[in-house]
Amino acid sequence: MPASNPLLRIHVTPTERDLLRAAAEHARTNLSDFVRRKAIKAAEMDLADRLVVTIPAEDWAKLERCIRAPAKPNAALRDLAANRPLWQDSLRLARRSTAEGRNQ
Questions:
Q1: Is 36 exposed, middle or buried, given 0-12, 13-18 or 19+ CB atoms closer than 10 A?
Q2: What is the pTM of this model?
Q3: Which of these, 31, 17, 25, lies nearest to 98 by C-alpha position?
């Protein structure tokens, strides 16, 4: 008998489920795969945030100079500042999806 993948169950509110479903549809995948991929990515990032970086003493002054130097403007940052955040559109899409689901 082949081994099956363990099941992980989570509890979410109806609004949270609608938001997740809308995001999964936007990503063109099913809800389970979307939540699994995003949870794994978030776990990896959380663990990476806890890594300790050791900077050799001889490089510390160079690092401080880089940190204190004024930022140089670039096209990517200007484009980012000029556009509406994606999360605002995602929330609107989830609300619309919820309303459409109730009308069916």
A1: middle
A2: 0.47
A3: 17
Q: Which of 39, 35, 33, 9 is nearest to 20 (CA)?
A: 35
pLDDT tens readout for residues 4-56:
788 889 999 999 999 999 999 999 999 999 999 999 999 999 998 888 888 89
What the block records as the tokens of 39 is 């949870």
Contacts 24+ apart (CB under 8 A), 12-21: 14/98, 15/94, 15/98, 18/94, 18/95, 18/97, 18/98, 18/101, 19/90, 19/91, 19/94, 21/94, 21/97
